[in-house]
Structure formats: C-alpha cells, structure tokens
User: Fold these one by one.
Assistant:
Number 1:
Amino acid sequence: MPAWVVSARESAERDRAAIERGTPSRLLMQRAGTAAAEEISRRYSERLRRGAVVFTGPGNNGGDGWVVAGTLARGGVDVTVVEVAEPNPKKSPDAVAERETAIGSVKLAASAEVGTTFVIDALLGTGFEGEPRGKISEAIATINGLRAQGARVAALDVPSGLDATTGEHSACVIADSTFSFGGVKRGLLLARDCSGEIVALDIGLPASTSAPPLPVLVDEAWVASHVPPIRYDAHKGTRKHLAVIGGGRGMPGAVVLASRAALRSGIGLVRVLVAPDNVSPVLAAVPSALITEWPSTEVQIEAEISKWADAIVIGPGLGKSKETRLLVERILAKSKLPVLLDADALNVFDGDTKSLAKVLGGRPALITPHPAEFARLTGTDVKTVLATRFDVGADLARELRATVLLKGSPTVIFAPDGRRYVIARGTAALGTGGSGDLLDGIVGTMLAQTLDATVAGCCAAWVHGRAAEFCQYVRGTTLDDVLYALPRAWNETALTPEPPVLAELPAVAT
C-alpha cells in the first residue's frame, strides 16, 4: 500500500470514509496509538529504560497519547502523563474512554521532572490551526526546553503547533521523530526541520478513491520496481542514446554536468550539441561524449538527433533569445522523440503555454521548472506557486499533455492524467547552481530507457535527492560529490517497510 500525502482536510475525509464503512472511530484511535507505541518501543528501547513522559491535550491527539501511554506502561515502561488539558466528553468521547482505560497504569504529574530523557508529544493534532495559547503554549515551550537539555521527542501525527497542511507555525514542538497516521501530512514535508524523522503508520484506512488521486510518496521500493535492469550483455546501443542540447556562448558548464550525470546513471552514449565556442571545452570535460555544434539544418537534426537518439534533453545553459527559441522549435518540429525541457528551453516560452503545448505535440515529454520558472511560464507569482505546490501543476500538465516536475522541497510531479507524486529526498547540498543540470542528465537517461516521462521524473528526482543524502555534509559538499554518490544511490538495495510502517523519511541534514 502506498503512503499518501494528505492535507488536514484530506486526512479527516479518509478517517470519515473508514468510519462510514464500519470502522469505529475509537478503533482508529487504538490502532494509531498502538502502532505508534510499537514503533517507539522499537526505535527508542534504550531511552525507554529510563521511562517516558507523555504530554496530552484535550482532543483526539491527546486520546492517541493516552493509548500510547497505556500500551507502553503495559509493556513495562515507567510512564508519566502530564495532562495539560482533560479530553472534552462532547468533542472527544473516544479520548475520554482511552484515558479511563490507561489512567490506572500510569503516573499523573503536573510537570516533567528535571532529567527527563524521552518525551511523547500528544497535545495538538491534524485539526489544529492558528497559534497555540495558554497552557498548551507553555507545554510546547516545556517540551522544547527538555529537548534542549538532551531529551528525545516523539510527536504523534504532527508536532504540536504545526499546521498539518501548510507547515506554518508560530511556535511548535521540535520533534526528533513524528509518527504520522494513515499517510504523510503535507505540513510535515514543508517543515522538515521541525518534524525530524517522519514515519507514516498504517491504521487500516481504505485505499484512496478521491478524484484527482491523492499524491503518492515515492520511496526506494517504488523506484526499484520502475528502473529497468541493465542486462549482463548490454552494450551502448541497448543502454540507449541521449542527445543533450544546450551550452550557449559562455555557458558550457551546464551541459557538462548533465552529461556526466547521464553517464553515471547508465546511459549508453551521450551526444552534446553546443554553441561553436563550447565544443572544445565540453570535449575536454566529457571526453566519453560525442560533441557537435548546434544543428543548423534539418539534415543535421535528423542525422545527429532524430535518427540517432532515443531521448532529448534541451535547455542546460542554452541561453534565452529568439535564436534559441527557434532552435527548440526546429528540433521539436523535426523530431518526435521523448523530450525533457528545462531552464532556458522553458524560459523562451514564458507566458506562452499554448505554443509550448503545440511544439511538444503529445509526445512523452517532461518539463522541470523551479517555482520561479513555473510562475513565469504560467503568468502567476512565486508566492502562489509555493503555497499551492501540491496542486498547482495539475492544470499545466493537462494543458501541455506532458509531465510537470516542480522542483523544491519537496518536489511534486504532475502527470497529464491527474496522478501526482511527491519526492521528499535530498538535502540543502542541492541548493546550488547546477543541481538542476544534474537532474536533467538523470531524467534524460531514464526517459531514454523507459519512454515514460512520469516514471523518468519520479525515479530521477528520488535518486538525485538520495545521492545528496549520501554526502556526509551540506556545507562543503559540491555537485562533484553528488555525482560520485550517484552509483550508490542507483544501486541501493530496496527495502520494503515492515508493517505497520508505510514509509520513512530521515531527519534532514544541516
């Protein structure tokens, strides 16, 4: 079962659907708390030898906390509950019932003792919006103070005070781990520095049937199942050919990075087509690639691209001008190969998506804008793109009949048929010039080998991010380090999470 990425509203709708199909709401609470307790016991067994303190609030999140407290206590853990607010019988009868079940096996205290080493945050859940106040606000500050003194903090569903949809917060718990129920909340992916390790837990919710489909979190098992194997008898032909067009005057570096990434991703042969001045420097930097000048005739396009390549990447370092737009249009008019457009190959179509759709012509195609490029292309603003990143690309993908890969943290991929995928791997080491060029080479390889633009985008974005995670540091890491880590990322053994875990994301590196 995939891990869905959901807003607070979508999370509530899934819970409601399960209840309407016959699952009692209290049973969902028990499943959530029990699953969280099991994973907490597995991950923090040493810490739990010295006990645990559970902070509970007045709602269903507090009820989850009472289930966790009771489950841990019955397993032999010394559990103290700091009840910041009693559950409301009218709004949270399930939480009242779970409190009654657990209260006899735990200790109640007005505050956590000095020296507390493990804290469970069950103050505020998915339905919270706004700013914490009063005793809840004080409890959040207390939890963060304990963490600053060395305690580890596990949050249930979301860190208290964090908006589950937007990731916004004025004051929230800073967690080492967050155990998200039934899927991954959008806000966790937008506030990774507050969420710590993210663990999505299965609580028996039915498969999503929403329209459009909920976004799927791409993981290593998904990638492994979609990357075609390279046979023992493969050669440069069967491993496919990729044409990379870019490298405008004074900008050879982008195509160098894209070509190197393609070669480290398993492509059989790369041909790089650049401005005349860049032939020599690119040849020196990537001697295993074929280097030629931009095609000036249809005969050259046919010979060097259409009849030679299996896929095309256009854009790295291309330059934005009337000349380069004509080059893009000529190549795409002559060739119907699968294509990736990035950087200036997109920028030359700013505000003109109708023309872009026409030149793409319904072929397998992918565009990879960052938020500012997306905003210019569609005539919107960056703030809107960032605020609606999980939804904003759907209409454009449908209009272009192409896959839209919206770069960012997280990256969101929109297929023309409405499917959405989320890639939440990587570190801030990728936040540097040229990172997108690496991605181009990886996507281009997968596009040539699968002929599926959506699969190519998902696999490439995941591997790109995973390679960055293999680099030990953020400060001091260069794109060369990410390149050298690509073989490890491509060949990592896929692990299927053990139930009840649906998906896991590591705490972000700094």
Number 2:
Amino acid sequence: MFRHILVPLDGSRLAESALATAGWLARKLGAQLTLLHLIERNAPSIVHSERHLVSAEEATKYLDETSRAPALSGLRVATHVHEVEVSDVARSIFEHSAELAPDLIVMCAHGTGGVRGFSLASSRNRSLPSARLPY
C-alpha cells in the first residue's frame, strides 16, 4: 500500500499543518516520510506572512528541525532539499515524486475563500493533472 509519503514544505506554519496528517498516516501504515523543500527562483521574502526560506543552508536546518517535530516522533523521516533554484514549484514537486518514488504526497491546501469558495493551492492543482497514476 503506502510505504513512502512525500511532504513538500515551504517553511510556513500553514504548510506544516500537513505534518499531523502525514505523521498519523505514516504511523498507521508503517510508512517512511520524506520532507521536501525546493529553493524557488526569485522567491518572495515573505510567504504566508512568514519569512521565506531562500537558501539551501537554512532549508536544510529547517527540515532537520522539522523532522524532530512531536507529530513525527518515532517515525522514519528523511529530508531532501533541492538546492538548484526552480521557477515552477508544482512541476518540481511532480519531478521529485518521480525521483523519490513516494506512494502518496501529503501537502497543505493554501486555498482561499473558505468553504463557499473552496479552492486548493495553485501548486497542488497544477501538480496533480500532470501525475500518471498506476491505477
């Protein structure tokens, strides 16, 4: 079933909200987690009202610290920082899914508009149509 879960993170608390679900799933399924951060080309200095991670060094430190979050305690957690700047985050998540071979990607929906105007994150929306699912 699901043995490897990929969790893309941008450094924001909003993105980190996916960790509880990913941790719960990994624990129930006996899966490994891989936390992924991509260095975005021309990244804004602020994302979701928080400082954006713009260097591989700070991203590595962030993922190492995040891998020790209470929600992930006792789980097998790997980290991966893509150090080459990317201009299309959604495409890069998709490409890393081919490289890292997760069975599942868990990420936060940064949607706007509440329940009535439900809209998922643009990166997620652009990632999924590109995926070729084996079933």
Number 3:
Amino acid sequence: MTDWLDWPFFEPRHRQLEARLEQWCADNIGDGHADDVDAACRALVEDLGRAGFLKLCVADGDNAPDVRSLAIARSTLARASGLADFAYAMQGLGSGAISLFGSDGQKEEWLPKVAAGEAIAAYALTEPETGSDAANIAMRAERDGDRWVLTGEKSYISNGTIADVLTVFARTGSAEDGARGVSAFIVRGDDPGLSVAERIEVIAPHPLARLKFERVRADPLGGTGNGFKVAMQTLNLFRVTVGAAALGFARRALDEALAFATTRKLGNGLLADNPMTWDRLAGMKMAVDTSELLIARAAWQQDMGEGDNRRAAAMAKLHATDEAQKVIDAAVQMHGGLGVTKGAKVEELYREIRALRIYEGASEVQRMIIARDLLKEHRS
C-alpha cells in the first residue's frame, strides 16, 4: 500500500526511503513483545542510528527536518511496531527544539549524538497539573550565579526513564506572565538532581515517567521568555507525523482484517463473502486513503514553507488519529474473540492507537486550532 508515494506531493527520494525502511523493518522487527521496554527502546534507537534513519530527525545545518520524510518513516515503522515508531519519533521531538532554536554550540554537541543513536532525547513539557495548558506550567527556573537551575516536576515524559538529554520548559517569570514567563532549557539526563519519581505504566508500554528536578543545572535554549514559542513550534513541526504514525497503525489493521476475512470460514464460504464485511472493509479503506491525503498535503505544505500550516497539520493529526481508532476497532470487531485476545496484533494496535489522540495536542486542541484559524480567515 505505497500508492500515496506516487502522488505529486512526494519525490523519488521519499519512495526510496520507504523501500529502505520496509526492508529494515523486515530484517529487524519481530512479532514478540519486549520484556524490558527500556532496553528494547535503547536497542531500537541504536539500530535506527546505525542504519542512518535518525539523521532525518534532526536539522541539517540551517534546514529543519523534512516533514514528508518523517511522515513516511513513522507510518512505515508504526505499521511494523509501535515501539519502533516511538523510539524513532522521540529522537525527533526530544531534540526538535535544539534543531529549531539551538545555538551552534548546542547543535554541535547534541544533534550528531541523537542522529547516531548515541544519545536518547526527551521532551519535558507536561506537569502533574498541566497538560494541554502549557502556558501555566509551574516548574521554576532560577539563576544561581552564572547558571540556571530547575526545581519542580514533569509528568508523562516519554523516554523519561532512559533520556540522555532533555528539552525542559520552566517558568522564569511570574504566574501572571502566562506564556511570556516560560523559557526552554537543555538538561543532561545524568545530572544528580534529576530523578525518576515514578515509572508510569500505560496500556501500550514504553519508557514513561514522572521526573523530579531538584536544582538541576540547565542550559538556556532559544532565549529567556521564548519557551512557549519554542514548545509550540516544536510540536507543530512533528504534529503531522503523529497522524502518520496513526496511519501506519490503521494500514496494519486493514492488512490484518483482509488476511483474516479471506481465510476465516463462515458457513459454507468465507467471512470475505459477507456483505457486512464488504461494508466494513470499504469504510476502513476510505478512512486510510483520506488520512493519506491530509497527511501528504500538510507535510508537503510544511516542507514548502508556504504560509501558516497549523490548520493543515491539525486537520491531518485529528483526522488520522480519530479515523485510525475506528479502523482498528473495526478490525478488532471483525476478529471476534480473537480480537481482544492478548497477543493478537489487532489487540496490540487497539492499545497503541489510543494515546495518539491525546499526546502532542489532544483532539480537542486540534479542533480549537482549526476553528480559530477558520474564523480568523473568515473575518479578515
């Protein structure tokens, strides 16, 4: 199902990338579940780095990452393994602010290591009391002589248990300053003041944690008071790729549904002979193709740098994640009891997809972005 790469949004290099990733997945991704998620994630990052795929996650000089390449990578990896997609994506998101706003020295120190799989990156924005309301974070950043130190907690931090470098957002102004009082910082994962306060177990296991910061040394990133801008632009860079990961999950669910329907006996025939199955498969394919169109358009628009692409990115993420949930649910329903049996691929996909409608901007936030932009356009 690579027909979308033949559309004019993509170039030959994108088709070559997809082919290389498909082969890598075939050679490196098994069907088993990792007993040690941290170790498995580290191994995936190292393997992806050695294969050269993580170079796509970081800036190349003054050029931001190519969003179409990121979307292709995430869709391909997610179709094979949710953990592989996670390991890949977090290298981009965790270092994205350095790619976009880092000084030459910061880029030289961290981006080659991230690209080689030698340093695992994390993005620490969410707190116990703030999720989508990022302008009201409470973590404090204070000057201590000629350095900054951070005090507070971050929660639901992906790669929190294994990160070597973290982009952290903290308050340098008063609470009344809102977004203007937030700044971004780079933190080393081995700082003695940084600790894992709680490992958070979720339905699709990955390295997730609540982190405690006790006067942790921090390197300013992007200028004091610009943290909210840094956070939002970083999220916007990778928002389309969340939809692409959902697309990969949906494609795999459709694959599984087709394979099951064409082999499962039903009466004197097969499940695939049933008109109800036809209706379900048609709806699944419609959802996959419309997601492909929205993702391709948004990624192309972002790479071309033509105007504000927030609405297109929000639409791609919202539609692809919501529709993937429906596609996977349909695949589970088609499988019957097997669909909710632990170890079945569709059961795994059912757990994997749910978080994508929450992280990097929940579906409700995407609807706000779309509506506000639409009203702004109408009133202008």
Number 4:
Amino acid sequence: MPVFALRGEDDLGIGDVGALREFIDWAAEIGFKLVQLLPINETGTDNSPYNAISAMAIEPTTVHLAPNSPQDLTREDFDVAFADIDFPILRSGGIKYRQVKKQKRRILERAFANFSARASVDRQTSFQKFCEEESMWLPDYAFFRVLMEENDDSPTWNRWPAQFQSLERARTG
C-alpha cells in the first residue's frame, strides 16, 4: 500500500499516517492481519518511494497535520497556513507534490517554532534525547537538507555549485 494513495475527505492533498490508521482499522475489521507499505523514506523531486534520499528519514508529507496534531499546531496556525489554499483543487486529481510538500513544510516549521518556544521541559528533554540517540545520521542529514533547499530542493549534490559539494567547503562557505 502506498501511503500517499490513502486519500481522505479532509486530507491536505496526499495520503498520510492519519489515513493509514483508518485503513489499518478497516483492514483489521474485515480480517486482514497484515498491511504492507511501500517505502516511506524521504524522497527527492521525483517523489518515487523507491528513490529515497535517506535510509533513515521519513517522507514529511506522510505526517498527519491538523489542528493539535502535532500538539504544537494550533487551530490558528493551521488556518493561517492554509488560508490561501483551494482545498477542492488541491484534493482533486493527482497529487500536486510540489505544492503539497511546500504547504506541509511550512506548517511543520510553524509547529516546530511553537514547540521550541513553548514546549515543557519534559518534551524538550525528550526531543534532545531523540537527537542524541539519532546522532549517527541526523546532524549530517539536516545539513544535507539545508544544502538541498539552497539548491532548488535538488538532492543531486554533484550538480550543486562547487562550494556545496565538499563538506568542509559547505560548512565554511
């Protein structure tokens, strides 16, 4: 099952783990014991689940976003972020990957800003623990994503300007 294909009435233009939860519940009700997914690793601009840009990072578009989901996303943040979106058009036809990714990234950034400003000490500590536990890949991947954004979201690093092709040059440039 491709998660992106699990579309719901209130989706943000792509299937996500909220719709996956509903699908799993439905499948269990009719007797299925297993649901197999296509890869959910983060993809590049081709959006192919078989052409992931990370073996560890999940595709951000699979994250379910709604008011209070994640808990740092307020109704106001949600409404403001999507005020200029024509949902019937976004939800019709094929997935508009570029637009959906842009909108979901924008709202995830808002939720993270809220988390950074207001999360309890326990939640901040849990986040720090996660970062430490994932330190073998997370800092380098975050840096790679920043460089991707600087280069039109292209994961093809060998086509980036020379100053971004070497870790040493990119960190100092």
